[in-house]
What we know:
alpha+beta, Trna Endonuclease, Chain: A, domain 1, 6-stranded mixed beta sheet, 5-stranded mixed beta sheet, about 20% helix
Amino acid sequence: MKKAIRPPENWQDFETLCKKLFGEIWKCPHTIKKNGRLGQPQCGIDVYGKPKGEIDYLGIQCKGKDNYSENKLTEKEIDEEIKKALTFEPKIKTLFFTTTAQKDVKIEKYIRLKDVESCKNNNFEMVLLSWEDIADLIEENRDTFNWYVNEFQFKDQFDIEIDIYSENENDEIIPKFTKKIIKYTLETDRDFEKKIWAQPLIMIQEPTYLFGSNKVNRSWCKIQTHIKNTGSIVLEDWKLYLTFEEVKKVDDDFTKNIFMYKTASPYRTTWAFEDEKKIGYFPLNNSPLIQKDSKYFKCFCIPNFEAKEIIVKWHLLARNFDREGQIILKVNPDYEIKNLKKYVNSIDLEKTEIEISEFIETISTERKGSH
Protein backbone atom coordinates (compact mmCIF):
# COMPACT_ATOMS: atom_id res chain seq x y z
CA MET A 1 0.00 0.00 0.00
CA LYS A 2 2.79 2.45 0.87
CA LYS A 3 3.82 2.80 -2.78
CA ALA A 4 0.37 4.27 -3.42
CA ILE A 5 0.81 6.84 -0.67
CA ARG A 6 2.21 9.86 -2.41
CA PRO A 7 3.89 12.79 -0.64
CA PRO A 8 2.01 16.06 -0.12
CA GLU A 9 2.11 18.61 -2.90
CA ASN A 10 3.74 21.38 -0.86
CA TRP A 11 5.85 21.91 2.25
CA GLN A 12 2.97 23.41 4.24
CA ASP A 13 0.93 20.23 3.83
CA PHE A 14 4.01 18.15 4.68
CA GLU A 15 4.42 20.01 7.99
CA THR A 16 0.73 19.45 8.73
CA LEU A 17 1.11 15.72 7.97
CA CYS A 18 4.13 15.43 10.29
CA LYS A 19 2.23 17.20 13.07
CA LYS A 20 -0.74 14.85 12.65
CA LEU A 21 1.38 11.68 12.38
CA PHE A 22 3.69 12.32 15.31
CA GLY A 23 0.84 13.65 17.42
CA GLU A 24 -0.68 10.18 17.08
CA ILE A 25 2.62 8.30 17.56
CA TRP A 26 3.55 10.32 20.65
CA LYS A 27 -0.05 10.30 21.96
CA CYS A 28 -0.17 14.09 22.27
CA PRO A 29 -2.54 15.21 19.46
CA HIS A 30 -3.70 18.32 21.34
CA THR A 31 -0.31 19.59 22.55
CA ILE A 32 1.99 18.95 19.58
CA LYS A 33 2.50 22.27 17.80
CA LYS A 34 4.00 23.90 14.75
CA ASN A 35 6.81 26.19 15.83
CA GLY A 36 5.86 29.85 15.49
CA ARG A 37 4.31 31.48 12.45
CA LEU A 38 5.47 32.07 8.90
CA GLY A 39 8.43 34.45 8.85
CA GLN A 40 9.47 33.92 12.47
CA PRO A 41 12.86 32.31 13.29
CA GLN A 42 12.26 28.65 14.19
CA CYS A 43 15.62 27.51 15.62
CA GLY A 44 15.71 24.53 13.26
CA ILE A 45 12.43 23.09 14.56
CA ASP A 46 9.23 23.06 12.48
CA VAL A 47 7.12 20.90 14.82
CA TYR A 48 7.66 20.07 18.48
CA GLY A 49 5.87 18.04 21.12
CA LYS A 50 6.21 16.17 24.38
CA PRO A 51 5.26 12.47 24.14
CA LYS A 52 2.68 11.37 26.69
CA GLY A 53 4.32 10.49 29.99
CA GLU A 54 7.67 12.09 29.15
CA ILE A 55 9.22 15.34 30.35
CA ASP A 56 11.50 16.12 27.38
CA TYR A 57 10.48 17.77 24.13
CA LEU A 58 11.19 16.19 20.75
CA GLY A 59 11.63 18.28 17.61
CA ILE A 60 10.94 17.70 13.91
CA GLN A 61 12.66 19.41 11.00
CA CYS A 62 10.48 18.93 7.90
CA LYS A 63 12.23 18.92 4.52
CA GLY A 64 9.84 18.74 1.58
CA LYS A 65 11.53 17.58 -1.65
CA ASP A 66 10.30 16.84 -5.15
CA ASN A 67 10.12 13.17 -6.04
CA TYR A 68 13.17 13.14 -8.29
CA SER A 69 16.21 11.04 -7.46
CA GLU A 70 18.59 13.98 -7.93
CA ASN A 71 16.72 16.17 -5.46
CA LYS A 72 17.96 14.92 -2.11
CA LEU A 73 18.60 16.15 1.39
CA THR A 74 22.18 17.47 1.54
CA GLU A 75 24.87 17.36 4.22
CA LYS A 76 25.03 21.15 4.17
CA GLU A 77 21.30 21.42 4.94
CA ILE A 78 21.67 18.95 7.80
CA ASP A 79 24.60 20.85 9.34
CA GLU A 80 22.72 24.16 9.13
CA GLU A 81 19.60 22.76 10.80
CA ILE A 82 21.61 21.04 13.56
CA LYS A 83 23.31 24.34 14.37
CA LYS A 84 19.94 26.09 14.60
CA ALA A 85 18.33 23.31 16.65
CA LEU A 86 21.03 23.67 19.32
CA THR A 87 19.52 27.09 20.12
CA PHE A 88 15.97 25.78 20.62
CA GLU A 89 14.63 26.17 24.16
CA PRO A 90 14.03 24.11 26.13
CA LYS A 91 16.66 21.64 24.98
CA ILE A 92 15.19 18.81 22.91
CA LYS A 93 15.90 15.12 23.47
CA THR A 94 15.66 14.00 19.83
CA LEU A 95 15.75 15.79 16.48
CA PHE A 96 13.85 14.06 13.66
CA PHE A 97 14.69 14.94 10.07
CA THR A 98 11.62 14.10 8.00
CA THR A 99 11.80 14.40 4.23
CA THR A 100 9.71 13.59 1.19
CA ALA A 101 12.94 12.63 -0.61
CA GLN A 102 13.70 9.00 -1.38
CA LYS A 103 15.96 6.94 0.88
CA ASP A 104 19.66 7.61 0.36
CA VAL A 105 22.43 5.45 1.87
CA LYS A 106 24.95 8.29 1.96
CA ILE A 107 22.68 10.69 3.86
CA GLU A 108 21.52 7.97 6.27
CA LYS A 109 25.16 7.23 7.12
CA TYR A 110 25.86 10.94 7.60
CA ILE A 111 22.94 11.27 10.03
CA ARG A 112 24.17 8.25 12.01
CA LEU A 113 27.63 9.79 12.35
CA LYS A 114 26.19 13.16 13.39
CA ASP A 115 23.96 11.37 15.90
CA VAL A 116 26.95 9.69 17.57
CA GLU A 117 28.87 12.99 17.61
CA SER A 118 25.91 14.86 19.11
CA CYS A 119 25.30 12.28 21.84
CA LYS A 120 28.97 12.35 22.86
CA ASN A 121 28.56 16.10 23.39
CA ASN A 122 25.45 15.51 25.54
CA ASN A 123 23.19 16.98 22.88
CA PHE A 124 20.13 15.56 21.16
CA GLU A 125 19.79 12.28 19.28
CA MET A 126 19.14 12.42 15.53
CA VAL A 127 16.86 10.30 13.36
CA LEU A 128 16.26 10.50 9.61
CA LEU A 129 12.90 9.47 8.15
CA SER A 130 12.65 9.44 4.36
CA TRP A 131 9.33 9.25 2.55
CA GLU A 132 9.30 5.43 2.51
CA ASP A 133 9.76 5.41 6.30
CA ILE A 134 6.99 7.98 6.72
CA ALA A 135 4.66 5.99 4.46
CA ASP A 136 5.25 2.93 6.68
CA LEU A 137 4.37 4.98 9.76
CA ILE A 138 1.22 6.32 8.09
CA GLU A 139 0.08 2.75 7.47
CA GLU A 140 0.78 1.81 11.11
CA ASN A 141 -1.22 4.69 12.60
CA ARG A 142 -4.90 4.40 11.77
CA ASP A 143 -6.07 7.95 12.52
CA THR A 144 -3.39 9.49 10.33
CA PHE A 145 -3.96 6.86 7.64
CA ASN A 146 -7.69 7.57 7.48
CA TRP A 147 -7.12 11.32 7.52
CA TYR A 148 -4.33 11.40 4.94
CA VAL A 149 -5.05 8.52 2.59
CA ASN A 150 -8.83 8.27 2.64
CA GLU A 151 -9.52 12.00 2.77
CA PHE A 152 -6.51 14.17 2.11
CA GLN A 153 -5.25 12.41 -1.00
CA PHE A 154 -8.10 10.77 -2.81
CA LYS A 155 -11.12 13.02 -2.45
CA ASP A 156 -12.05 16.59 -1.70
CA GLN A 157 -11.90 17.31 1.99
CA PHE A 158 -12.77 19.89 4.57
CA ASP A 159 -9.97 20.87 6.91
CA ILE A 160 -9.14 23.83 9.09
CA GLU A 161 -6.14 25.05 11.04
CA ILE A 162 -6.80 27.05 14.20
CA ASP A 163 -3.95 28.82 15.98
CA ILE A 164 -4.70 30.53 19.30
CA TYR A 165 -1.85 32.40 20.95
CA SER A 166 -0.91 35.34 23.16
CA GLU A 167 1.17 38.39 22.31
CA ASN A 168 3.95 37.26 24.66
CA GLU A 169 6.85 34.86 24.22
CA ASN A 170 6.18 31.16 24.86
CA ASP A 171 2.45 31.87 24.45
CA GLU A 172 2.14 32.92 28.09
CA ILE A 173 -0.54 35.32 29.17
CA ILE A 174 0.60 37.85 31.75
CA PRO A 175 -2.29 39.49 33.60
CA LYS A 176 -1.52 42.43 35.87
CA PHE A 177 -2.94 41.85 39.36
CA THR A 178 -2.78 43.68 42.67
CA LYS A 179 -1.45 41.57 45.54
CA LYS A 180 -2.34 43.15 48.86
CA ILE A 181 -0.35 41.74 51.79
CA ILE A 182 -2.08 42.65 55.05
CA LYS A 183 -0.16 42.11 58.25
CA TYR A 184 -2.21 42.14 61.46
CA THR A 185 0.11 43.04 64.34
CA LEU A 186 -0.29 43.82 68.02
CA GLU A 187 -0.66 47.55 68.64
CA THR A 188 1.64 49.13 71.22
CA ASP A 189 1.32 52.56 72.87
CA ARG A 190 4.07 53.86 70.61
CA ASP A 191 2.23 52.58 67.53
CA PHE A 192 -0.91 54.37 68.71
CA GLU A 193 0.97 57.67 69.09
CA LYS A 194 2.47 57.33 65.62
CA LYS A 195 -0.95 56.65 64.16
CA ILE A 196 -2.42 59.78 65.81
CA TRP A 197 0.39 62.06 64.66
CA ALA A 198 0.26 60.58 61.16
CA GLN A 199 -3.31 61.79 60.59
CA PRO A 200 -3.36 64.47 57.84
CA LEU A 201 -4.39 67.96 58.89
CA ILE A 202 -6.00 68.67 55.52
CA MET A 203 -7.51 66.53 52.81
CA ILE A 204 -5.22 65.98 49.86
CA GLN A 205 -7.16 66.21 46.61
CA GLU A 206 -6.41 63.65 43.93
CA PRO A 207 -4.73 65.12 40.84
CA THR A 208 -6.99 66.22 38.04
CA TYR A 209 -6.22 65.85 34.37
CA LEU A 210 -6.71 68.36 31.62
CA PHE A 211 -8.65 65.81 29.59
CA GLY A 212 -10.56 64.32 32.52
CA SER A 213 -9.78 60.92 34.02
CA ASN A 214 -10.69 57.31 33.55
CA LYS A 215 -9.87 53.89 34.93
CA VAL A 216 -8.32 51.11 32.88
CA ASN A 217 -8.27 47.47 33.96
CA ARG A 218 -4.75 46.19 33.25
CA SER A 219 -5.73 42.61 34.11
CA TRP A 220 -7.14 42.03 30.63
CA CYS A 221 -5.01 39.75 28.42
CA LYS A 222 -5.13 39.77 24.63
CA ILE A 223 -5.78 36.44 22.91
CA GLN A 224 -5.21 36.22 19.16
CA THR A 225 -6.80 33.66 16.86
CA HIS A 226 -5.76 32.72 13.32
CA ILE A 227 -8.10 30.62 11.16
CA LYS A 228 -6.89 29.03 7.91
CA ASN A 229 -8.80 26.87 5.44
CA THR A 230 -6.30 24.07 4.78
CA GLY A 231 -8.82 21.85 3.00
CA SER A 232 -9.73 21.61 -0.67
CA ILE A 233 -13.32 22.84 -0.29
CA VAL A 234 -14.67 26.34 0.34
CA LEU A 235 -16.10 26.81 3.84
CA GLU A 236 -19.59 28.31 3.66
CA ASP A 237 -21.98 29.49 6.37
CA TRP A 238 -19.20 29.16 8.89
CA LYS A 239 -18.51 30.58 12.33
CA LEU A 240 -16.09 29.93 15.18
CA TYR A 241 -16.72 29.78 18.93
CA LEU A 242 -14.07 30.00 21.64
CA THR A 243 -15.03 28.78 25.12
CA PHE A 244 -12.70 29.72 27.98
CA GLU A 245 -12.04 27.76 31.17
CA GLU A 246 -10.28 29.11 34.29
CA VAL A 247 -11.16 32.74 33.50
CA LYS A 248 -13.18 35.39 35.33
CA LYS A 249 -14.26 37.42 32.31
CA VAL A 250 -14.10 37.51 28.52
CA ASP A 251 -14.58 40.37 26.08
CA ASP A 252 -14.54 40.91 22.32
CA ASP A 253 -12.54 43.54 20.44
CA PHE A 254 -15.49 45.66 19.37
CA THR A 255 -15.22 49.36 20.11
CA LYS A 256 -16.25 50.61 23.55
CA ASN A 257 -16.58 54.17 22.24
CA ILE A 258 -20.28 55.05 22.36
CA PHE A 259 -19.81 57.65 19.62
CA MET A 260 -18.31 55.05 17.25
CA TYR A 261 -20.70 52.21 18.10
CA LYS A 262 -23.38 52.94 15.51
CA THR A 263 -20.87 53.61 12.73
CA ALA A 264 -18.83 50.49 13.45
CA SER A 265 -21.72 48.07 14.10
CA PRO A 266 -22.16 46.96 10.44
CA TYR A 267 -18.52 45.79 10.46
CA ARG A 268 -18.65 43.86 13.72
CA THR A 269 -17.39 40.25 13.58
CA THR A 270 -16.77 39.27 17.22
CA TRP A 271 -19.25 38.93 20.07
CA ALA A 272 -18.69 38.14 23.74
CA PHE A 273 -21.15 35.88 25.60
CA GLU A 274 -20.01 36.80 29.08
CA ASP A 275 -22.13 34.39 31.13
CA GLU A 276 -20.89 31.44 29.08
CA LYS A 277 -17.27 32.69 28.96
CA LYS A 278 -17.53 32.39 25.19
CA ILE A 279 -16.44 34.43 22.15
CA GLY A 280 -18.12 34.08 18.77
CA TYR A 281 -16.56 35.04 15.44
CA PHE A 282 -18.96 35.55 12.54
CA PRO A 283 -17.40 36.54 9.19
CA LEU A 284 -18.56 39.83 7.73
CA ASN A 285 -21.61 39.40 5.49
CA ASN A 286 -21.37 35.64 6.05
CA SER A 287 -18.52 35.57 3.53
CA PRO A 288 -17.05 32.13 2.68
CA LEU A 289 -13.49 31.12 3.53
CA ILE A 290 -11.82 29.94 0.35
CA GLN A 291 -8.99 27.41 0.18
CA LYS A 292 -5.71 28.60 1.76
CA ASP A 293 -7.30 31.88 2.86
CA SER A 294 -7.08 33.06 6.46
CA LYS A 295 -8.96 35.18 8.96
CA TYR A 296 -7.67 36.76 12.15
CA PHE A 297 -9.31 38.25 15.20
CA LYS A 298 -8.50 39.10 18.79
CA CYS A 299 -10.38 38.93 22.06
CA PHE A 300 -9.61 39.41 25.74
CA CYS A 301 -9.86 37.52 29.01
CA ILE A 302 -9.02 37.91 32.69
CA PRO A 303 -7.77 34.62 34.18
CA ASN A 304 -8.89 33.40 37.59
CA PHE A 305 -6.51 34.68 40.24
CA GLU A 306 -5.31 31.17 41.13
CA ALA A 307 -5.13 29.86 37.54
CA LYS A 308 -1.83 28.39 36.33
CA GLU A 309 -3.19 27.91 32.82
CA ILE A 310 -6.34 28.56 30.85
CA ILE A 311 -8.01 26.23 28.38
CA VAL A 312 -9.50 27.62 25.19
CA LYS A 313 -11.84 25.17 23.47
CA TRP A 314 -12.68 26.03 19.87
CA HIS A 315 -15.56 24.80 17.75
CA LEU A 316 -15.84 25.64 14.07
CA LEU A 317 -19.24 25.13 12.46
CA ALA A 318 -19.81 25.29 8.69
CA ARG A 319 -22.15 23.88 6.11
CA ASN A 320 -21.52 20.08 6.01
CA PHE A 321 -18.53 20.38 8.33
CA ASP A 322 -17.58 20.98 11.94
CA ARG A 323 -14.37 20.56 13.89
CA GLU A 324 -13.39 20.94 17.57
CA GLY A 325 -10.13 21.28 19.45
CA GLN A 326 -8.48 23.04 22.35
CA ILE A 327 -5.41 25.09 23.21
CA ILE A 328 -3.78 25.46 26.63
CA LEU A 329 -2.10 28.76 27.51
CA LYS A 330 0.13 29.22 30.55
CA VAL A 331 -0.66 32.02 33.02
CA ASN A 332 2.21 33.99 34.56
CA PRO A 333 0.77 36.94 36.54
CA ASP A 334 2.60 40.22 37.09
CA TYR A 335 1.83 41.43 40.62
CA GLU A 336 1.72 44.99 41.92
CA ILE A 337 2.59 44.49 45.60
CA LYS A 338 0.91 46.58 48.30
CA ASN A 339 1.99 46.06 51.90
CA LEU A 340 -0.49 47.11 54.57
CA LYS A 341 -0.34 46.98 58.34
CA LYS A 342 -3.39 46.73 60.59
CA TYR A 343 -3.28 46.78 64.36
CA VAL A 344 -5.07 44.34 66.64
CA ASN A 345 -5.46 44.35 70.42
CA SER A 346 -4.58 40.71 71.02
CA ILE A 347 -1.55 38.65 70.08
CA ASP A 348 -3.93 35.82 69.17
CA LEU A 349 -5.24 37.94 66.30
CA GLU A 350 -1.84 38.46 64.69
CA LYS A 351 -1.72 37.01 61.18
CA THR A 352 -0.89 37.77 57.55
CA GLU A 353 -3.50 37.76 54.79
CA ILE A 354 -3.04 38.02 51.05
CA GLU A 355 -5.73 39.45 48.79
CA ILE A 356 -5.52 39.31 45.00
CA SER A 357 -7.56 41.72 42.89
CA GLU A 358 -7.65 43.15 39.41
CA PHE A 359 -5.20 45.97 38.77
CA ILE A 360 -7.10 49.17 38.02
CA GLU A 361 -5.06 52.13 36.79
CA THR A 362 -6.34 55.69 36.73
CA ILE A 363 -5.10 57.53 33.66
CA SER A 364 -5.94 60.65 31.72
CA THR A 365 -8.33 60.12 28.83
CA GLU A 366 -5.57 61.37 26.55
CA ARG A 367 -3.72 58.10 27.28
CA LYS A 368 -6.73 55.83 27.45
CA GLY A 369 -6.65 52.66 25.35
CA SER A 370 -8.97 49.68 25.13
CA HIS A 371 -8.23 47.03 27.75
